[in-house]
Amino acid sequence: MLNSRFLASVAALGLLAFTVRADDWPQFRGPNRDGISRETGWLTQWPAGGLKVLWKQPVGRGYSSLAIANGRVFTIGLLPKDDSKKPVLEETVTCVDEASGKVLWQFSYTGFQDKSFPGSRSTPTVEGKVLYVYGQHGGLYCLECETGKVVWQKLMGKDLGAQTVTYGYAASPLLVGDMVIVPARILQNKAPKESTIKPSSNALLLAFNKKTGEEIWRMYHESYHLGGGYYACPTSCVIDGKPCLVYHTGNACFGLDPASGKTRWMHPFNDDDLLTKKGRHGITAQEPAVLGNRILCCIHPDNSNGLGVCLEVDGDQVKEVWRDKLLDNYSCDYIVWKGHVFGIQHNDTTSRIGPLYCFDIATGKKKWEQKDAGGSFSMIDGKFLTFTGEELLLIEASTEKYQELARSQKLFTPDELTFRYSDRIAPVLANGRVYCRSQRGTLICLDVRRK
Q1: What is the pLDDT of residue 315?
Q2: For residue 341, what are the β-bridge partners?
Q3: Pairwise CA distance, residues 370 & 386, whole Å
Q4: pLDDT tier, 18 (very low <50, low <70, confident <90, very high otherwise)
Q5: What is the dihedral of CA 330, 335, 340, 344, to 10 degrees?
């Protein structure tokens, strides 16, 4: 007869297997590109002495988040090409070992050194044995995860006649079926000097065969060179039972057919919303959030005043149902949970920290607001994980009130935080480890595995 201790051990192991789940984070905003992790069983009661630091690794300056898959961590940053006093900076993809932080390989290409917001923008997308990278100058690369070797590349400027844009391209490649989708500013007969062709048609968003790089379709909407859809990809979703791409160009929100890129519906924003009379044109750096047939998107026509809008789709028609100025997330994305939208108000003139808020999507009613509560954030197992630029905050996910659960030690030394806006980079939890990055270029890995 099996003894009771053995049976108890088996039962405990069964319970552990049921309640603990590790999960990769293979692209921008996680497995489903919604900012939500499926991981469970991690440490939510943080020690008073601070979280254990497993490793730190310099990965170059920038705002790129992390893609984590198959024991590897991928990110992008500006790194010097040589050791001279005034080195040339290159945008560099770095692959590090998840457990040790050791650099396994790097892949570099021409960088873009913007004075106001220096550094990388987009996040790699991993699928199987390859990853997709989109650079600030419009280089789309398919690389081997194992080696960093180029499988194929599409240089938007040289190969398609795309123009450079203010601040550089920032969208993280979106995979839909057999396609990889990114934006690019292509105007007929207005190619840059390095281009080998003169564009025969305009483009704002393009889809390529993810295995070969062959172009499948392109769509175009007239959009200002600053902010017109170049900083984010569409959201892949299902509306009224049909696959859809919801794309926000800064001055309009579109519903596109994923197979052809053709427009199903469009909601343009008016001149007052875009501050057109003041010389503004609308800008967004967000991927829209979708719940059923409702869409949440944000326009930001200047550095201080933004606007969050809730749209409702009915067939080929779309209308605005409510709006609120508090939802001006600017460069951070919404998280939708239990019929509510959560976000961080962000602009370029006030404090970088919060407020964090919660709105009922059905009614547009604000449920709660908390000042000084973090920056870009992720959601894991009913908890929000956010980064202030110095510390991590753990917050209970609630539609009724704000409740802070834990706060980490300061994660970076002063020389690792010599530039602001680190709070725009959302922290990532994968396989019992939290990853956080400073805009200056230091990646830190923290242990949140239960012992």
Answers
A1: 94
A2: 336, 359
A3: 13
A4: very low
A5: -40
